[in-house]
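Handout, section B. The chain below has 254 residues.
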Amino acid sequence: MRRLYGKDVPRGVFRLRGLRSLAGRSELSPAADSPAAFKQEFLRKIDIFRDLSHAEIEQIDRQTRMTTVRRGQVIYRQEDTAEGLFLLKRGRVRLSRLSPSGKKLEVAVLEPGTFFGEMPLLGVKMRSASAEAVDDSLLCVMSEADVERLVLTKPRVGLRMIEVLGHRLAAAEAKVEEFAHRSAASRIAAALLRHAGGGVIDDMSHQDLADTVGVHRETATKILDEFEAAGLVALGRRRVQVLDADGLRRRCAL
């Protein structure tokens, strides 16, 4: 346990020294492939490693280890000591911050093929956000020392990292602008349109939606009920069906 904004908060469940290695497990790859080949193929697909040669990927393979994270597990928490860099192979990871008032704000949801936990490389020794597995996820982990050595010896990796972080900063600035100029109802309408692939959002609670747009759960529930009464959506258990996308777009403009 440690203190965050005057409250006792448990630390993230995964520490770098305690991560569970998957190397050598037969289920990680088809029978014709070795676990090492599976891991190297994974590393080639990470955005910051796409310029590296086969030999360079093999070197990174020796400096990393893989671990599984179950859905809902916290990988690390805001203000935990920053210990290493995480590479996302499978599943999704939600980054979020907790305000002094206790309100949770979703910073981003990361898809496979990218990295997170880069704060040690930026000179920050404490985590600035929490990371939680949205799905059962497969991660690869590098120690801070190995990442620093890699960036020094392979400047292309550092340039790719700057590129990715630049895109994330632009997305964060757009979210700040949205919070400043849009009402809660407008932000929720926009979030529903973003997430409603095929017109349906599955496995999203009212709390998840509230965290996405930076409001309290009660506010999100009230607005969703209003949208349902207006015929814009149909609500189910952890499920939202968009019935009138044009109507939601009009709400986005309010």
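Note. The chain has eight helices and 13 strands. Compare this with the example in section A.
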